[in-house]
UniProtKB/TrEMBL annotation:
Pfam families: Peptidase_S26 (PF10502). Belongs to the peptidase S26C family. The keyword Phosphoprotein does not apply. Keywords: Conjugation, Periplasm, Signal. GO terms for molecular function: serine-type endopeptidase activity. It comes from the Bacteria. It comes from Nitrospirillum amazonense. This is Conjugation peptidase TraF. GO terms for cellular component: periplasmic space.
Amino acid sequence: MIARSAARHDGRRRHLGRFIVLAFGALGTCGVSGPSLLQHRPLVVWNASASVPIGLYRVRSNTQLIRGNLVLVRPPAAVADLAAARGYVPTGVPLIKRVVATEGATICGDERSVFINGEPVAVRLEADRLGRPLPTWEGCRVLKTGELFLLMPDVPGSFDSRYFGPVGIENVIGQLVPLWIG
């Protein structure tokens, strides 16, 4: 009888744990996919994409963003429209990207590569997985105050600044800190 009761208790505990994870995931999804529903920065987000580890992230204010920070960002309007039209992410869903360059960094792009301060940091794909040409920019420029270069260097298929260029800091919703990744 005691063993059966303990087993039932363990089953409830596992069920409660799953419920908590799903509840936080739902809250995070609301924060990410429904920004019009929430006028303020979400507290947590659930990432289900392959660009960064799948899991639950806390959203902190974006004071003092530095290289290496993972951020939740609303892409510029033209970029968001293209991403939605191609089915990369639904309209209104922010992106998760890493800050790789800030004010004063020299960003250069040619047909196939992106460089930061003369160092190669990313290769550009010519087309997405459905064969559609990806946007490109070429030349060099120094990032101004309030500009960030967002890139997932280890994810060749990431739709990031390698294709759409620098992003204004006003587009950043907040810095992400992992709470639980699986």
